[in-house]
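Sequence, structure tokens quoted for completeness.
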Amino acid sequence: MAIVHQHIFDVSMSSTGDIGHGYNTSQAVRALPDFMPTRQQATLRFMTIFFGANDACLPGTQTGQHVPLSKYRQNLTSILEHPTLAAQKPRLLLITPPPIDEYRLEESDKEKGVREIRRTAEHTKLYADACREKGQEHGVVVLDLWSIFMRKAGWTEGMPLCGSKKVERNRILGELLHDGLHFNPKAYKLLFDEMIEVIAQHWPDQTPETLPFVQPAWEILAPV
């Protein structure tokens, strides 16, 4: 994802990476001061906040990643209002956790020798809802990835949740989530396309086509 992002934006901006693979929001709050550059080191143009899939693990499971829903909400507020963000004032994009596929998760866990149920579609939805609500509460742009994936899977409000074992297996979610949780290339492409669309909608002066180069394009440089 970072590689594709860097390619599209070319030499207009640089990427700083992510805060930590597998982190939940409690870990992110602790790590944020060390992750964020100072204004003297760099100026952040954008920052995506994409947490919730790990927080939404069921309580008591062996992952140890579960964060209660109320604490998840509190942690999102702590991140959005953190002094290091206030100092940088980046354009914030809050991304909801995506849905899960309980069928593929169970298969993947069994392949690893895991027998416990670690996540459910219904429990994950609670965290996506909370993320969306926090964005509205703080006036932060939200990329509702949960709803995007679910619409892609054919779900509409009021229907049983795609990905739940209470309904038939959903082919589309299987194409997006290779182990029921982590993304296939199709899912990364969908996330990226939606992100570019959100940027164009909310910050039209920040699209790749409108940003000036930080360094001159190769074809206008004198040959070495």
